[in-house]
Specification:
By secondary structure, this protein is α/β, with parallel strands linked by helices. The protein has two domains: 103 residues, Response regulator (Rossmann fold); 50 residues. It is 68% helix and 13% strand. Helix 1 packs across helix 5, helix 2 runs parallel beside helix 4 and helix 5 runs antiparallel to helix 6. The longest helix has 50 residues. The protein is rod-shaped, with a radius of gyration of 26 Å.
């Protein structure tokens, strides 16, 4: 699936860079010719990467800050499109997308680890409590509690694998 990239740059420099990004990165590139159009695009959709012309960012620092805030999870690269060639921009974009993918993978792994730990702790408590209840169970309760202990044990074994 192509990575959505927002390119905020004047129309004089944007098409060549957009073409290079599309060809080299299998990216879906949307061009915004100014800060206002870029802000509208960021509010409309999500992007994996935002490339912002330095001249547009330098012209109005507050507007540039607003772009950064609305980019949410997309890294923003400020690039001087006049002096930087399309191939160098492609390399920088590729590196930023790789970093983003790596960061997302690490975040997912951390969430999985926390979830696994929390589930394991809760399941251990459930297993211990059900085993204690089984020891004090009446004959009528014993069969049901054995089933609860078995289910908790199976879930714990599944979590370990």
């Amino acid at each position: 699936m192509p990575s959505p990239i927002l390119l905020i740059a004047p129309e004089s420099t944007a098409p060549a860079v957009a073409d290079a990004l599309r060809k080299s990165l299998d990216a879906m590139v949307e061009i915004a010719a100014n800060r206002r159009a870029g802000l509208a695009a960021l509010r409309r959709g999500e992007y994996c990467l935002v490339l912002l012309d330095e001249a547009l960012a330098a012209a109005d620092a507050q507007a540039a800050d607003l772009l950064y805030q609305n980019a949410v999870f997309a890294p923003v690269l400020e690039i001087n499109f006049i002096i930087t060639g399309p191939q160098r921009i492609v390399r920088q974009a590729r590196a930023a997308l790789t970093r983003r993918a790596h960061d997302q993978a690490q975040a997912r792994a951390a969430v999985v680890a926390v979830l696994h730990s929390e589930l394991n702790a809760s399941l251990t408590g459930l297993l211990l409590e059900s085993q204690l209840a089984l020891r004090q169970a009446t004959p009528e309760q014993e069969e049901k509690l054995k089933h609860v202990v078995e289910l908790a044990g199976k879930l714990r074994n599944q979590l370990r694998t």
